[in-house]
Amino acid sequence: MRLVTFQTKLTDTPPRLGTWIDGDQIVDLTAVAPDMPQFFEQNCIADAQGYIERTDLSDIVFPVADVQLLAPFPRPASLRDFGVFKTHMDAAARITGKEISPEWFKLPNYYRGSTSPSSITGHEAVVTWPNYTQKLDFELEWGVYISKTGKNISVAEASEYIAGYTIYNDISARDIQFRHMTLALGPAKGKDFDNSNIMGPCLVTPDEIGDPYNLRMIARVNGDVWADGNTSDMYYSFEEMISFVSQSETLYPGEFLGSGTVGKGCGWELDRWIQPGDVIELEVENIGILSNQIGEPEVNPAEWTEKGL
């Protein structure tokens, strides 16, 4: 299934659960489950399929053009972003002059990202240009949501915990990010700002994704291809990531694990920088296209300008 969380554009309605069918139609599934977390907590996939088969859809179907697609889980239970693409790591080593740590080949590495209501957004949302950056960047990633509670999960059984896959654009303020990371605590305001974690346009369940480790990934800026990669470059699988994170730590439905950037999947690697008004399209085979426009820079308060922000 291709599951979505959406709002209608005609009225100020609460978010609804839906499924994307026939190319351009969204079927309302709130009669099956009120939202994405309960859909997976109650294992409603079979119920949803039966509901669609026996229901007159005429009153509960919407053209995609008439809805606003939110992030599949508008409030993920957590967000962990890894860095598992070898080509991207090679580029980082080349740019920084620092060799890849031997530990990278032994342990999947990640940081905890923001899941605040202001940071998570979806398809066609306008990207915030923070008031403290001159170098805003996109990141072509994808990721998985956890479907059920588990702990100390083996790699062999980890696929049972994947609710589905989505595209992830990890918007980054590069100049402040690299300043923060000299302080050894993480990217901080380099990643944390409104609409900085973009997910969508849908969640594709594993039965429809095909081979997850042979999917083409493309990034376009204003229609121009900036990146063209493949999920086969992942050094660690999602199953390995899930197993690693779950050791002595309970995972819950709705937690999100991002892959990190595919090789050449960001402006920093290419030394090409997006500008206000640009349209970023991230495409992952068998999922779709996640599209967003870059907003205008916000105004920086004088007191933080004086402090060097």
Tell me what you see in this structure:
With 309 residues, the chain is α+β, with helices and mostly antiparallel strands. The strands form three sheets. Strands 1, 2, 3, 4, 5, 6, 7, 8, 11, 12, 14 and 17 form a twelve-stranded mixed sheet that branches. It has a five-stranded mixed sheet with strand order 9-19-18-15-16, with no helix packed on it. The chain has helices spanning 36-41, 45-54, 86-96, 174-181, 238-246, 267-270, 302-306, and strands at residues 2-8, 16-21, 25-28, 61-63, 67-69, 78-82, 110-112, 120-121, 126-129, 136-137, 140-146, 162-170, 172-173, 197-204, 216-221, 224-230, 255-258, 279-284, 288-297. A hairpin with a 3-residue loop joins strand 2 and strand 3 (25-28). It contains seven helices and 19 strands. It is 17% helix and 32% strand.
Oligomer: single chain
DSSP E strands, number: 19
* Range of strand content: 25-35%
Order of helices and strands: EEEHHEEEHEEEEEEEHEEEHEHEEH
Share in helix: 10-25%
Count the helices. How many? 7
User: What profile does the largest beta sheet have?
Assistant: 12 strands, mixed
**Helix/strand/pairing category:** alpha+beta
Give the SSE map.
Elements lengths: L1 E7 L7 E6 L3 E4 L7 H6 L3 H10 L6 E3 L3 E3 L8 E5 L3 H11 L13 E3 L7 E2 L4 E4 L6 E2 L2 E7 L15 E9 L1 E2 H8 L15 E8 L11 E6 L2 E7 L7 H9 L8 E4 L8 H4 L8 E6 L3 E10 L4 H5 L3
Parallel strand pairs: 6-17, 8-14, 9-19
Antiparallel strand pairs: 1-2, 1-5, 1-14, 2-3, 3-4, 6-7, 10-13, 11-12, 11-17, 12-14, 15-16, 15-18, 18-19
